[in-house]
Design goal:
By secondary structure, the chain is α/β, with parallel strands linked by helices. The protein has 11 helices and 13 strands.
């Protein structure tokens, strides 16, 4: 096995199953503010997923902040001190400044640890799309792939990580500038469910709106199926839940009906990502032919 660590941060919404079983894989903790209280997992323990989304759904405001250069250096330095190299998979630069912090930290640490390195990849992914990319990077490393070859591998594969998701509350999309206030008000009144994806540049794109939850979930599977290719066969699907496990189970049954032999992992979408999309969302992550935004189905 090659002697390097693979890392990411809390934006990756890594399934508990991966966290429990993968070796030399580490996730940087991040902080969020909810109703004026800072939760950093250190001085103030993180809320449970249910408690966070319940408070958010009650109308309380939440916010997040990007990882600083110093926080990134503190995270990477212990691995370099052990004589390890690091392959870091970052949240899409189109969605956050974290990537720039990681790059700067890598450059500064290279002067302190000239015999080791941190290779930073802009994943062009969000949430468990980063976790899915990490899954394949870990497989290649454990097969003996070098850090430089793995960096090249994930730099290609990031263009084939499909994200398709629906959210329950359009007000968070309005706050984030994804839909107009008029669409949000009408959509909420009519119980319309928006469908979104992550574009090739890493930005979130609203692609569709469906009447009712079950139709929206079916649309996730249909859009995933439309981008399947033998060139990138799926070993794993990840289903992310914004405190919506019942809907995640329904989505799993739909996916299993199409792909009975592919492994599925569930992931809780943490407050770092959930702050911007609200309670009740469900996400499907998979390998695909390309990430061009879908037309309406």
């Amino acid at each position: 096995m090659e002697n390097y660590i693979i890392t990411t941060d809390m934006t990756a919404d890594v399934p508990e199953q991966m966290l429990a079983t993968e070796k030399d894989f580490h996730v940087l903790d991040m902080s969020y503010v909810l109703d004026g209280v800072l939760y950093d997992g250190k001085t103030t323990p993180y809320l449970s997923v249910k408690d966070f989304y319940d408070i958010l759904a009650s109308g309380k405001m939440a916010s997040t902040s990007m990882v600083t250069v110093e926080e990134a250096k503190e995270f990477f330095a212990p691995f370099l001190e052990q004589g390890k190299d690091v392959l870091h998979l970052s949240f899409a630069s189109a969605l956050s400044g974290c990537y720039n912090s990681y790059v700067t930290a890598s450059e500064e640490l290279s002067k302190e640890y000239p015999n080791n390195k941190v290779v930073v990849i802009d994943t062009l992914c969000a949430s468990s799309g980063e976790a899915l990319l990490a899954y394949y990077a870990l497989r290649r490393r454990d097969e003996g792939m070098s850090i430089d070859d793995n960096a090249e591998y994930v730099s290609n594969l990031r263009h084939h990580i499909g994200h398709i998701f629906t959210v329950d509350d359009m007000s968070h999309l309005y706050r984030g500038g994804r839909v107009s206030k008029g669409k949000a008000v009408v959509g909420q009144a009519l119980k319309m469910k928006p469908v979104l994806t992550v574009a090739p540049d890493g930005k979130l794109v609203h692609t569709d709106t469906k009447m009712g939850r079950k139709i929206a979930l079916r649309t996730l599977v249909d859009k995933m199926e439309a981008r399947q290719t033998d060139e990138y066969p799926n070993e794993l699907f990840i289903i992310g839940s914004y405190d919506a496990q019942a809907d995640a189970e329904v989505l799993k049954d739909m996916v299993v009906a199409k792909h009975p032999d592919v492994k599925i992992m569930f992931a809780d979408v943490t407050p770092i990502v959930g702050t911007h999309l609200g309670k009740g969302g469900v996400t499907l992550l998979y390998l695909c032919s390309d990430k061009t935004p879908f037309k309406s189905l």
